[in-house]
Amino acid sequence: MNDINSLLEPGMLVRHPGQPDWGLGQVQSNIGGRITVNFREQGKVVLDGARVTLVPVYDG
């Protein structure tokens, strides 16, 4: 798993670098490299942390 992804915790806000139209997402869980994120425009998505590096958003 990517180092940044390993720091993601439930409640944190992120963006998917390859899917900007999904909008802001909130991490729901991060278990064993599988990251569940609820994106504003896409809904709930389960991502493989080894394949996608999510971008933390600190200012909303």
Overview of this protein structure:
By secondary structure, the protein is mainly beta. It has one domain (3-49). The protein has one helix and five strands, in the order H-E-E-E-E-E. It has one helix at 3-6; strands at 13-15, 25-31, 34-39, 43-48, 55-57. A five-stranded antiparallel sheet has the order 4-3-2-1-5. It is globular and about 25 Å long. The N and C termini lie far apart (25 Å).
Structural class: mainly beta
- Which stretches of 5+ consecutive residues score pLDDT under 50? none
The fraction of residues assigned to DSSP E strands is 35-45%
* SSE pattern: HEEEEE
Radius of gyration: 10 Å
How many domain units?
1
Distance between the termini: 25 Å
User: Main beta sheet: strand number and arrangement?
Assistant: 5 strands, antiparallel
Shape: globular
Q: How many helices in DSSP terms?
A: 1
Helicity level = under 10%
What is the number of strand segments?
Answer: 5
Mean pLDDT: 93
The spatial strand order of the largest sheet comes to 4-3-2-1-5
Organism: Ponticoccus alexandrii
Pfam families: DUF3553 (PF12073)
Protein name: DUF3553 domain-containing protein
